[in-house]
Design brief:
This protein is mainly alpha-helical. The chain has one domain (17-143). It is 83% helix and 0% strand. It is built from six helices and no strands. It has helices at 3-13, 19-46, 51-72, 74-82, 89-103, 109-143. The N and C termini lie far apart (63 Å).
Length: 144
């Protein structure tokens, strides 16, 4: 069977995706996550934190919540219905960090959890740090 034949076979048997419903779910869940973040920011500011400190507290809270929900298996259930709505950057990244660690915990603490924890974060960190170093060098060259 050729790749084209296989592609046709898959297309014949695949259910069409309900794009309208998927878009609405993604919008509602992503909006809800952002609304929760704004509500937390307002709450933390009412508790006496300044805007910058409240932003940090919101980030930590959303990361903790996403990691906890991932560990309990609830984040994946939500993502199944919400699709891209759960990819709001901070919660999506937290899920991407915790998922491999949970999946490979049976292989041990070092070779499973610790090693797999950086399968997603590793490239992000490498390219993020590299880009910041290059940006800093360019900035130094143009300021001199």
């Amino acid at each position: 069977m050729t790749n084209q034949d296989y592609g046709k076979l898959v297309d014949e048997h695949a259910k069409p995706s309900p794009m309208g419903k998927d878009l609405v779910w993604a919008f509602l869940v992503g909006g809800a996550i952002c609304t929760i973040g704004q509500g937390l920011s307002n709450l933390y500011q009412n508790w006496g934190l300044d805007k910058e400190q409240a932003g940090t507290a919101v980030s930590v809270t959303l990361i903790l919540a996403a990691a906890l929900l991932t560990g309990l298996g609830w984040f994946d259930k939500l993502a199944k219905h919400a699709g891209a709505g759960t990819l709001v950057p901070i919660t999506g990244f937290a899920n991407a960090m915790v998922s491999p660690a949970v999946e490979f915990k049976s292989e041990g603490l070092v070779t499973g959890t610790a090693a797999k924890l950086f399968t997603v974060a590793g490239p992000v960190l490498v390219f993020g740090i590299s880009a910041s170093v290059i940006y800093g060098m360019i900035l130094c060259l143009f300021q001199a």
